[in-house]
Amino acid sequence: MEFKHALDVQERKVTHMLIGKNASESRKLEYLIADDFDKALLVVDEQAKEFDKVLDTVKALSTDGLAKGVELKQSKLNYYRSLKTLHLYAKKEIVQQKLIRQVAGKQRDTAQNELVKLAKAKQPLYDKVYEADEKLYQTLVEFDKANGL
Fold first, then answer.
1. Which among 84, 85, 117, 101 has a CA at the least distance from the CA of 37?
2. CB under 8 Å to 30, separation ≥6 — which residues?
3. Could you give the CA distance from residue 95 to residue 38 in angstroms, rounded to a whole number?
4. 149 Cβ contact list (under 8 Å, min separation 6)
5. What superkingdom heads the lineage (predicted)?
């Protein structure tokens, strides 16, 4: 089925971006380990563009004649949006890490406290990814059943 195959292709792109060897996420982490925050920020911008391409591709897919096709497409879009939000949140953390390296004394303490606040605020983003993933799985099961797959 062309629709489902197209979704699978996009899923592989996102998976590669996030866990592939030498892909953007691994490059970002290498830059962070090397304290090269500017390059890490550029990679986050690159990831935003990669997510946007995937989202645009999924949005453009036709669901004509497919039972539960619209629902599956929307679930995929919600899932990718939640992943994008989670991974782009790193930009705030990287900016804060960069600031910590540039200041001293009370300013550094303030910057470190802000980084802790950012880390705590990140949990709801993970929760949204988990919820979107669960909904996507349920919708995929319904799609497969409705289309005899």
1. 101
2. none
3. 9
4. 1, 4, 143
5. Bacteria
pLDDT at residue 71 in the model: 97
Structure token pair of residue 57: 């591709």
Q: If phi over 0 gives left and psi between -120 and 50 gives alpha, with beta otherwise, what is residue 61? A: beta
- 63 three-class SS: coil
Q: Is 80 exposed, middle or buried (0-12, 13-18, 19+ CB in 10 A)?
A: buried
**Residue 128 in this model has a pLDDT that exceeds 90:** yes
Q: What is the distance between the alpha carbons of residues 74 and 139, in angstroms, rounded to a whole number?
A: 9
Radius of gyration of the chain (CA): 19
Q: What is the pLDDT of residues 29-47, one digit of tens each?
A: 999 999 999 999 999 999 9
Q: Is the pLDDT of residue 91 over 90?
A: yes
Tokens of 120: 């705590």
- Which token pair is 78? 């919600």
Length of the chain: 149
d(Cα 87, Cα 94) in Å, to the nearest integer?
A: 12
Say if residue 149's pLDDT is above 90: no
